[in-house]
Structures are given as structure tokens and as C-alpha cells.
Amino acid sequence: MSQAKVPAWVSIGLLPAVNIAVAFLVSALLFLYIDINPLDAIKVMWTGAFGYAEGMGYTLYYTTGFVFTGLAVAVAYHAGLFNIGVEGQAYIGGLGVGIVCLTLGDVAPWYIIFPVAIIAGGLFGAGWAFIPAYLQAKRGSHIVITTIMFNFIAASLMAYLLVDIFKPENSMATESRVFTQASWLPKMHDVFALLGIKMASSPLNISFFFAILCCVFVWLFIWHTRWGYEIRAIGSNPSAATYAGINYIKIIIITMLISGMLSGFFGLNVLQGELHQIKLNFVEGFGFTGIAVALMGRNHPIGIFLASLLFGFLYQGGAELSFEYGVDRNIVVVLQGLVILFCGALEHMFRPSLEKLYLRLAPVKPQGEA
């Protein structure tokens, strides 16, 4: 099947929609198995995620975290790199954000601390990605193996720091002290209140806008800069790109540094925006879910934002479903797994049929017009 004959919207839009629809149909069978009406379940999830202001706030809060991790995976993927280490890079990036908030919270307001935290989170995340990048570029060590190992190292390092360094005296909890309130990012309901608009309280904060700016940055960088072109060239054919004069080592390291930087921004939303302290395992698997987000979003910022919104819906809607029906919260993990299965592992199951159907139904242009 010649992909050149099929427009991009079939692959980018229609195919993911079909995969998601099939995933939800299989999910309906799961709900029937546990004696829950699938239509009632989807109604509860939709209402919980988008039906009222507080639920919408939580959905967009989760979406913000997925945008950062999804973009991190996507940037690396464009260079042919499968960055499994987003979880650890987000962890260490959050450490940088936390250190800034703990250090400057008593002497500066949030609008001074926020840009410093952006720089620190990005540098810490990029720094944690540098060693796997160097080993891949200079020594040929596979990026998947090294980034997985660095996830474990990051977890161990954070456990040590939270037990022996950051834990307040007379406390048994593995967490730092609470940041000074002056360092907290404004919540969205507080921002709207300044404009005279009442909005229900939720964890959604202004890092949501920064996540959108990161989407714009990735789009401009990957598709409208020389480095972005070189990244895509390396990802398409490393041998040909190197023969054409592209420095493979430099591009691999730059790509992973940017990927780690985007991972490090995760701490802005979770730590400075909501938790207001460094806690053990605050990433909570968002780094690994970012792989699915990038996969579903076809590694494009617009697709990643939409996929992040879908997973935000699953997180918040699943919480409402658990509260309404008393089902285990792990049902959300099952739903995520089904979406990943059909949009990832089984992506090519429907592609040939959709392409044949389109070519059969699409009007054939005359040879001269073509």
C-alpha cells in the first residue's frame, strides 16, 4: 500500500480515532463483566472530567503534566531515540524546582522564583539526560538500557535526599518542608478571581500556559530550525545524515538535552503548583505514560496536547468512576492499557483496511490533473 496516495489526515486523524473507538468498545465489555452499564460509566467519567468546573480543573492539571512528558518523549523520538528515562529526568528536574523554591521562597515572590525554577528544572532534567546521551553518541550504549538504569538511580538518589537531607527534624515522612507560600504558583481560580470571574477551586495552575508555550517551542524547533531538520534527518537515516555532513554526536546530545529539559519542567506543575513540597515518588508514572501520549499524538505537539487531554480525562474520570461505583482505581490503568494497546502495539491492524477503503471511495483525479 503506497502511503503517498493516502492523505495525512487518514493516518494522523482517522486511524487514531478508530483505534481509540475500538479500545473503548473493548472497555465496554470490561464494564459489563464487572456489572456496570458502559453507558452509565462513560457518562460518569465524562461528567467527572468535563461536566463541572472543579473536575475540568483537575483534568487540565493532569493534562499539563502529560504535555511535558509527552513532548520529552517526542523530541527524542524524532532523532530515532526511545527515551525511557523521562520518569527519572522528571524526578531530578523536580528536585531542581524544589531546591529553588526552598532556597528563594523566603526572599522572593513567585514571579521571580518561577523563571528561576524553569531554568533549574530544565538544567537538572537535561543534566540527568546528558550521561545516557553521551554514552549513546560516543560509546554506542543503547539509550533504552541506560535511561532505564538512570530511572532506578534517580529513585534511589531521591530516597536518600528525602530521608537524610531534606526531611525536617522530628518528622517521619519522606518529604521536604513545605515551600513558603510566596513561592507557590497562582492557581487558575485565583487568576480568574482577579478578573472578576468565579471559578471552582482546583489544582490547575499557570504552568498550564507554560506547557502550551512548550508545545509551540517544540513545533518551531523541530520543523522550523536547522537543528530540528538535522534531528529529523538523523532519525530518518543516521548513515545518510552523517554522510551529508550532519554531526551525529552533537545532534544526539542536543536532542537528549532538550528531551531532559522538557521532562524537568514537570516539577513546575506538580511541586511548585500543587504539592508545595518535594515528596517521594511525586512523578507517579507520568514519565512512562508520556510514552503513550507521544505515541498517540504521533509525536506532534498538537497531537500530544490532545492525547494528554484524553489521559487527563481517564485519570479524572476514573477517579469519579471509582467514587461513584466503588470500583478499584486500577481500572483506569486497564483503560490506559487498552488505549495504548490499540494505538500502539496494534496500530497497523486497521491501517491497511482504512487505506484500501479510502482509495476505493476517493474520487480518482485525471492523470493530467494529478
Report on this structure:
The chain is an all-alpha fold. Helix content is 72%, strand content 0%. The protein contains 16 helices and no strands.
Instruction: Report the end-to-end length measured between terminal Cα atoms.
Output: 18 Å
Strand content: under 5%
Helix content: over 70%
Secondary structure: number of strands: 0
Shape: globular
- State the order of secondary-structure elements, H for helix, E for strand: HHHHHHHHHHHHHHHH
Question: Strands, helices and their partners?
Answer:
Blueprint: H1 8-33, H2 38-50, H3 53-78, H4 86-104, H5 110-139, H6 143-164, H7 188-194, H8 207-224, H9 226-236, H10 238-243, H11 248-264, H12 266-275, H13 286-296, H14 301-325, H15 330-345, H16 351-361
Helix pairs in contact: 1-15, 2-3, 2-14, 3-8, 3-11, 3-13, 3-14, 4-5, 4-6, 4-11, 4-12, 4-13, 5-6, 5-11, 5-12, 8-9, 8-14, 9-11, 13-14, 14-15
Quick rundown:
With 370 residues, the chain is an all-alpha fold.
Keywords summarizing the entry:
mainly alpha; 0% strand; 370 residues; globular; 72% helix
